[in-house]
Known about the structure:
Blueprint: E1 4-7, E2 11-17, E3 20-27, H1 29-39, E4 44-51, H2 54-65, E5 68-69, E6 73-76, E7 80-88, E8 94-101, E9 119-123, H3 130-145, E10 149-153, H4 164-177, E11 180-184, H5 185-192, H6 197-205, E12 212-215, E13 221-224, E14 229-232, H7 245-259, H8 272-289
Parallel strand pairs: 1-4, 1-9, 2-7, 4-5, 4-6, 9-10, 10-11, 11-12
Antiparallel strand pairs: 2-3, 7-8, 12-13, 13-14
Amino acid sequence: MRKVYTIGETVYDIIFRNFEPISVNPGGAMLNTAISLGRLNIPVYFISEFANDTVGCVTDKFLITNKVSTEYVYRYNNGKSAISLAFLDENKNAEYSFYKFYPDTRLNIKFPEINKDDIVLFGSFYSITSEVRRPLIEFISAAKENGAIIIYDPNIREPHKKELPEYLDFVYENISFADIVRASDEDFNVIFDVSNPDDAYKLITSNNCRNLICTAGASGVNLQTSDYSKQYAVPKISPVSTIGAGDNFNAGIIFSILKNNIKKEDINCIEAKQWDKIINSGIKFGTNVCLSLENYISF
């Protein structure tokens, strides 16, 4: 059976509205994706790190309860699990403050061996962080060599913009590993100062990836491949929180790839009708998560 692996940072989200705490959730982009897939009984493994403290134990239990394997989570003692304060604005978008205390040794695990047609999702600032970069990229490289489908989500926001010149080569390398880049319009604006989807697609094709899914919130979704491009509308909703929208869009496209038995050899020749199913699945998942304070789908 095909498996899904998501690799990224774990944070414990405390969500505020009008500066009052209203919800707490284990979070982090790749964790959010994994939880939604686990709720749909997809064999999913979360690769990450968090401490042997109370927050870490709560997070570990939550993952297991939602059928996500924590076999490849590094549990450390000399540090604390990361905390995120998420302040929702009037549009239900979040501004974050992070509190992190990692040990000197990071992501000290034996990585899984990936099989052909498994799916690996990676990204966020975690994927370009120097302390975990070497083992993470060794894992992604081995997964690609073994014939896995690689999906990259940059997920880099404005607060990291000043740091990006130091890490831009890492972003380009990440793109080069990917079969699909799923990014937001904000990602391209922050990372590359690009706002046009065509210019964004030129950037990813110049780094050897042929499939771009660019999400733009309420403005819709733009798909571009070597043979096909299309703009998709999204439903008009009154969001409760947009935290996890992109992460669950990723869960939706992964779910559809598996459901429609799309394999590695098919990725660069997916037909229009199949792309419609994939993108609409992403929209369904992303829309659902915006209607609650959880970071994951509710179905």
